[in-house]
Amino acid sequence: MTSQLLFGEHFTIIEKQKYWSKIKVFFDGYEGYLDNKQFEEISEDLFERLSIGEPTFSGEIIDFIFNSNNDYFTIPMGSRLPYFFKNEFTINSKKYVYDGKVLSGKLKKNDIIQKAFPFLNAPYLWGGKTPFGIDSSGFTQMVYKLCGYSLLREAKQQATQGEVLSFIEESEPGDLAFFDNENGEIVHVGIILKDYHIIHSYGKVRIDTLDHSGIFNVELQKHTHKLRVIKKMI
Fold first, then answer.
1. Largest Cα–Cα distance of the chain, in whole Å?
2. Spatial distance between the Cα atoms of 225 and 162, rounded to a whole number of angstroms
3. What's the pTM?
């Protein structure tokens, strides 16, 4: 698994095979393969309207939606609710009900940290994007997404976005710090907190110390990641 699609996300089918389809996600342009049993095709008109409309996302760590037959489906935080209005939304003429917390529009930079904390202690999962399993770039992407901002999928891709900061002292809570491996490839990312701390997914979503060398893990009493660059996204 290289990434995940959450409920309500839309994508383009590049190539449809018997059991799997190669797709391109609209939100971040990421490509991969998806089981044909796990999606429903929509019209080109609906696709275009979803692409230009302001999205509404579920804001609960996990919750349920109900259809007209009163069947319920579980959805994780960050699922998209197309044309949400008065606790209802519609996909392909099918009506659903959701009465949980919703998020929409661009939030303030201070809100980034508040949206990061619900993921705390979520287990690390390669390709994951939910509080039940998430990787480092999936974590930063989802937190920014909940605040109304778009990041690319992988850490090295996200590092091409935003404005470079020269020193940690110039950073603010909500900025991103990127880290590279011994080959100089950016492989990790986290969200900077105040007082030289960082929240990131490493084994689990955790808070560690950040200095000019990188991330210092208090439990292990050593640096686990080498700092490459700090970037201001908003």
1. 57
2. 21
3. 0.95
Q: Give pLDDT tens digits for 120-169.
A: 999 999 999 999 999 999 999 999 999 999 999 999 999 999 999 999 99
Closest CA to 202 of 219, 194, 193: 219
| Helices then strands, each counted (H, E), the chain | 4, 18
Joined tokens for residue 93: 């003429």
Spell out the residues 6+ positions from residue 58 whose beta carbon is closer than 8 angstroms to its own.
75, 76, 77, 78, 79, 81, 98, 100, 101, 102, 103
Q: Which 8-state DSSP code applies to residue 92?
A: T
Q: Quick: pLDDT tens for 62-82.
A: 999 999 888 999 999 999 999
Please state, in angstroms and rounded to a whole number, the distance separating the CA atoms of residues 183 and 181.
5
Using CA atoms, how far apart are residues 151 and 64, in angstroms rounded to an integer?
27
Catalogue all structural domains in the chain, each as residue range(s) with its CATH number: 11-104 (no CATH), 109-232 (3.90.1720.10)
